[in-house]
């Protein structure tokens, strides 16, 4: 009961809050929410920068051709608040990434989940609780 | 006493009969664009008499609005990071259970890791409770607003949307139709019209003659508000952040900001002119809270002033504002294609 009340409180606040919450850019202006793709590859670079942190992944297709993909994360301001740091993901890490593809066909995607080879999820909701996978 | 009990029982029976015979139910589920359930979404049904009934979705995204008096309703739903949903002219008859499933469209980038809905929710819900006690005062007896504040999360009753002139409505619609691809902040330009930002940290540093607000999430990340009695210069060049002066009205600091250019967006997508005046009222009723009321007045765009209200809470002094150098690696601009 108490949890429901808290949820309702948060929910009502957020309903109002969304009207004035600034985002760096509109998701739907750049990415296609209907085009989700899974990538498996090796991290080649991490940019702990604003307005978005980014990481790059070498992904090999079935013919053996390697393509470097660019993945967008949130701002480091938020990632730090959630407990993540610049070295939470490292060059050479083998990861599985789910991402929304860029609308303009660039080799870019908006990362919605990043899973390390041992199953740990990086950059999810909070570093203390990675079970949500960034979704609710 | 017996008479009273009989009367009360009659009232109860009448009420129960009305609830059974004269009312209906709206039920359904709320899902996102991936058809995943949205938990914690707010649902509201408003009838022609103005009565409002509210519910929140459970973990399966389901909601029920029981015992709605028969009549016509407007159903609205919302959750953080989604486009608001509204559907008018829903008729409920006595004894009817109507199913209305609500699709919520994605809006801003809140599935992005680090800015995802779960993360933001957890950050808000795990914020340290603000301390209690009286509001501090400065040496000259004024309330001292200094401190590190979690950006306001609006409280109180639902706030109205800005009432736009027709030309402004047209512009706002075009911007939404283009998925806000031309928003100034996507180009790392300033986006806060008021001297405090929402959700992120604000550090207020107050002296007798000057209040400085340091905004964690804006470019530039500061505003200066003159408290020394000066007026606005008469020959202001229009600017992104305007010119701010503050005067005390009792224990409320009233900040007036004018001199804006017309390049920022008001709210999510609304235009404004260089006639815009922003009045920010700050009141610290106690140690841990800062009431923020912002009035946007622009006769060139708005039919009437638009007022938003929120409450900031005091963060631990250990919270530090970090830099936000937006242009460091802004790769998005060339990929913002809109539709």
Description of the structure:
The complex is a heterodimer of chains A (136) and B (339). Chain A is an alpha+beta fold and 136 residues long. Chain A has one domain: OB fold (Dihydrolipoamide Acetyltransferase, E2P), CATH 2.40.50.140. Chain A has three helices and six strands. Chain A has a five-stranded mixed barrel. The longest helix of chain A is centred in the first third of the chain and has 16 residues. The two termini of chain A are 19 Å apart. The relative contact order of chain A is 0.17. Chain B is mainly β and 339 residues long. Chain B has two domains: 102 residues, Immunoglobulin-like; 203 residues, no CATH class. Chain B has three helices and 17 strands. Chain B has a nine-stranded mixed β-barrel with strand order 9-10-11-12-13-14-15-16-17. In chain B, strands 1, 4, 7 and 8 form a four-stranded mixed β-sheet that branches. The N and C termini of chain B lie far apart (70 Å). Classes of the chains: A alpha+beta (136), B mainly beta (339). Chains A and B meet through helix 1, helix 2, strand 1, helix 3 and strand 5 of A and helix 2 of B.
**Strand elements of chain B, count:** 17
Secondary structure category of chain B: mainly beta
Strands across the major sheet of chain B, in which order? Answer: 9-10-11-12-13-14-15-16-17
Helical element count of chain B?
3
Q: Mind telling me the CATH class of chain A?
A: Mainly Beta
Which quaternary structure do these chains form?
heterodimer
> What's the main sheet of chain B like?
9 strands, mixed, barrel
Question: Which regions of chain A contain 5 or more consecutive residues with pLDDT less than 50?
Answer: 1-20, 128-136
Shape of chain B: globular
The radius of gyration computed from the alpha-carbon positions of chain B, rounded to a whole number of angstroms, is 24 Å
| Category from helices, strands and their pairing of chain A | alpha+beta
Order of helices and strands of chain A: HHEEEHEEE
- Overall mean pLDDT score of chain A? 80
Which term fits the overall shape of chain A?
A: globular
């Amino acid at each position: 009961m108490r949890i429901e009340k808290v949820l309702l409180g948060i929910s009502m606040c957020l309903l109002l809050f969304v009207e004035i919450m600034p985002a760096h850019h509109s998701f739907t202006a750049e990415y296609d929410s209907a085009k989700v793709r899974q990538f498996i590859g090796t991290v080649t670079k991490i940019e702990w920068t604003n307005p978005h942190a980014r990481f790059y992944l070498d992904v090999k297709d079935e013919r053996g051709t390697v393509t470097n993909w660019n993945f967008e994360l949130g701002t480091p301001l938020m990632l730090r608040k959630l407990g993540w740091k610049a070295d939470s993901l490292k060059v050479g890490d083998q990861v599985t990434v789910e991402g929304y593809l860029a609308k303009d066909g660039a080799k870019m995607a908006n990362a919605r989940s990043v899973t390390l080879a041992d199953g740990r999820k990086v950059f999810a909701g909070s570093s203390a609780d990675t079970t949500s996978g960034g979704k609710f | 006493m017996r008479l009273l009990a009989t009367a009360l029982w009659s009232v109860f029976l009448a009420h129960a009969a009305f609830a059974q015979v004269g009312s209906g139910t709206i039920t359904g589920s709320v899902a996102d664009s991936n058809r995943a359930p949205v938990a914690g979404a707010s649902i509201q049904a408003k009838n022609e008499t103005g009565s409002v009934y509210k519910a929140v979705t459970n973990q399966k995204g389901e909601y029920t609005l029981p015992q709605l008096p028969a009549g016509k309703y407007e159903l609205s739903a919302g959750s953080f990071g989604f486009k608001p949903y509204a559907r008018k002219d829903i008729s409920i008859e006595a004894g009817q259970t109507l199913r209305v499933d609500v699709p919520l469209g994605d809006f801003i980038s809140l599935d992005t890791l680090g800015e995802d809905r779960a993360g933001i929710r957890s950050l808000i819900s795990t914020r340290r409770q603000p301390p209690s006690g009286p509001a501090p005062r400065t040496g000259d007896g004024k309330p001292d607003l200094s401190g590190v504040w979690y950006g306001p999360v609006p409280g109180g009753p639902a706030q109205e949307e800005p009432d736009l002139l027709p030309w402004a409505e047209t512009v706002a619609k075009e911007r939404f139709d283009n998925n806000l691809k031309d928003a100034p902040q996507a180009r790392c330009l300033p986006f806060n019209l008021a001297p405090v930002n929402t959700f992120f940290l604000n550090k207020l540093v107050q002296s007798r003659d000057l209040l400085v607000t340091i905004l964690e999430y804006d470019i530039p990340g500061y505003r200066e508000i003159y408290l020394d009695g000066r007026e606005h210069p008469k020959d202001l060049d229009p600017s992104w952040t305007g010119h701010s002066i503050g005067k005390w009205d009792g224990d409320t600091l009233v900040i007036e900001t004018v001199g804006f250019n017309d390049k920022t967006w008001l709210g999510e997508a609304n235009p404004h002119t260089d006639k815009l005046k922003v009045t920010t009222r700050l009141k610290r009723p106690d140690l841990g809270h800062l009431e923020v009321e912002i009035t946007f007045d622009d006769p060139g765009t708005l039919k009437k002033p638009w007022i938003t209200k929120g409450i900031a809470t005091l963060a631990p002094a250990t919270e530090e504002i970090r830099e936000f150098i937006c242009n460091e690696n802004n790769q998005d601009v060339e990929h913002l294609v809109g539709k």
